Structures are given as C-alpha cells and as structure tokens.
Amino acid sequence: MHIDNLVHMANRIGEFFQAMPDREEARREIAQHLRKFWEPRMRRALLEHLDDADGAGLLDIVRDAVRQHREALMPTSPA
Q1: Chain-centre distance for alpha carbon 17
Q2: In the chain, what's the furthest Cα-to-Cα distance?
Q3: pLDDT per residue as tens digits for the range 11-25
Q4: Rounded to two decimals, what is the model's pTM?
Q5: How far apart are CA 64 and CA 56, in angstroms?
Q6: Mean pLDDT of all residues in the chain?
Q7: Cα(42)–Cα(34) distance, rounded to whole angstroms?
Q8: Domain ranges within the chain, ordered by starting residue
C-alpha cells in the first residue's frame, strides 16, 4: 500500500478522534484503532514514514499519537 494512502487513512482516523475534548484520550484512541484494525505491514510503513519523513502529511494529532504510542504500534511479526 502506498504511503499517501496510509497517511490519508490515518488522518481520517485522526479527524474522527480529534473532536474528543481530552487530547490524551484522543491520541490513545487513535493508536488503539491503528493497532486493532491495521495489519502489521501498514503500521510498519507508517512508522517508517514517521522516521524517514517526520510523518509528512499527517495531522499533528496523528503524528503525536504514533510517536507517543510507538511501542504499542510496533508489529510483532517479522517483515
């Protein structure tokens, strides 16, 4: 899957959760959604995009959620 599609999908998730009044809870929910519904290769690609391009194109709340909850988003299966 192309990174532009992943960024778009991650931002759609972020748009949904950014309406929550508690920013910490919103970031946690974004990370939980990514962990629960995205397959490992999608999460791996998003993490690589964060490392390689500083998460270019991601909403701030999504970028912060991925950084803050990186360990939980790390795929446990090999590449």
Answers
A1: 12
A2: 37
A3: 999 999 999 999 999
A4: 0.92
A5: 12
A6: 95
A7: 9
A8: 3-73
